[in-house]
Amino acid sequence: MKGNELKPRIGIFGRRNYGKSSLVNYLTGQNIAIVSDTPGATTDPVRKTMELGGVGPVVWIDTAGIDDEGGLGSLRVERSLAELRQVDLAIVLVSENRFEEAERMLLESCRKGNIPFVIVCSRADIFPPTDEFLHSLEQESGKVPFVLSVNDQSSRDALLSIILQALPESAYRTVSLLGDVIGDGDRVVMVTPIDSSAPEGRMILPQVQVLRDILDNNAVAIVCKETELSQTLEGMPEAPRLVITDSQVYGMVSKIVPDEIPLTSFSVVLARAKGLFSDYVKGTPAIEKLHDGDRVLLLESCTHNVTCEDIGRVKLPKLISAYTGKKLSFDVVAGLSAIERPLSDYSIVIQCGGCVVTPKQLASRLAPAIEAGVPVSNYGLALAFLNGIFERSMRVFSNK
Question: Is 187-269 in the same CATH topology as 4-171?
């Protein structure tokens, strides 16, 4: 069920020629990262997936040196820091008995982003750390540094054990999407439109994730299109425990499903599981307060082919404009691309369901907006609000 984007991410950060690439090779047991004595050999982040005992597959990320120089060098540093904001665990390399502004900046970024980190004194066979340096490093970082030479294979298991202990369980423990609202034998109806934005020959990822979760909870999944929903409900011997719909047909589905049957959307289910749900609930009503000239930022976690039925780029802007009756501007930013405008330019930020990113990535993406006091919402909650069923979409979770 997990794509590469959803695996725990462990990044390695430090100055050029501090042995970051050698450490990736050392930890994975493979020569996957280029090792060179030439400073700046690693330009773009290098990723390698490897099983980590007790966790499963994780993605190791080798990054460019944080002391890179020149025009391109500064861009590489920016890329490294962007990776840092997305990882579940950072391994910070120090060497040559140096702990200066670059290293302090890394640790401060980790603390600010609530990113756990491990300190490794690399190249210990070439630059043995002094006792004084190790003591001052521990005092400043709050961590006991791990002294390492990649030529010593006997240290590998010990370092992996420390990494395993530092990696937060939330990065790899699967949280049930519906485990607290459905149980054995419950019937759950999934409403899945098939239109031009649906992938050919398969379901979209949120639908697949919810379907798997229903089965994992020993419930019964009943899947239909919105055009067959009335017939599906009429043919059931008893009312379903829950109806979950694609957000884009919320309006139609809410008229078909009796009010006493809980109704929500795939996007709302994912938003609740990914975190930031309370921020979405608080921020969504800001739609009602939009004024002429306001800007709305729509964030997509993935890139995809845009169609005339695209939710984020077509349907949401039309619905928000019609609902408010205001002349608004809409910006769309896909993937992890930079947001060009200052966040203060926006009256609300609306995030997609985030089915292809980790909770850490999602939190990192929205943290600047939340810190700036800009209201944030989610595609599913925004569409529920625009269709007048905001409260109803969350009712099934209200006592959880």
Answer: yes
* pLDDT for the residue 31: 64
Q: What is 187-269's CATH number, 3.60.10.10, 3.30.360.10, 1.20.120.140, 3.40.50.11420?
A: 3.40.50.11420
Lowest mean pLDDT segment, chosen from 16-20, 212-216, 333-337, 364-368: 333-337
In the sheet where 346-351 sits, what is the strand order? 329-334, 295-300, 346-351, 376-378
User: How many Cβ atoms are within 10 Å of 340's Cβ, its own excluded?
Assistant: 8
Distance between CA atoms of 359 and 348, rounded to whole angstroms? 20
- Helix or strand holding residue 225 (H, E): none
Residue 232 pLDDT: 96
Q: How confident is the model at residue 6 (pLDDT cuts 50, 70, 90)?
A: low
Degrees to nearest 5, angle at CA 147 with 141 and 149: 140
| Cα angle 198-302-313, degrees, rounded to a multiple of 5 | 65
Q: Which two tokens stand for residue 155?
A: 């240290």
Write out pLDDT tens, residues 140-196: 999 999 999 989 889 999 999 999 999 988 777 777 899 999 999 999 999 998 865
Q: In degrees rounded to 5, what are phi and psi of residue 386? A: -65, -25
In DSSP terms, 52 is beta-bridged to: 56
**Segment holding 26, helix H or strand E:** helix 20-28
Other beta carbons within 10 Å of 156: 14
Domain boundaries, the chain: 4-171, 187-269
Check whether domain 4-171 has CATH 3.90.550.10, yes or no = no
Q: How many helices (H) and strands (E) does the chain have?
A: 14, 14
Q: Encoding tokens for residue 129?
A: 């750390």
**CB under 8 Å to 14, separation ≥6 — which residues?**
20, 65, 66, 92, 93, 94, 95, 103, 106, 122
Q: Shortest CA distance to 369 belongs to which of 341, 393, 388?
A: 341
d(CA 300, CA 335): 6
Q: Is the entire prediction scored with pTM above 0.85?
A: no
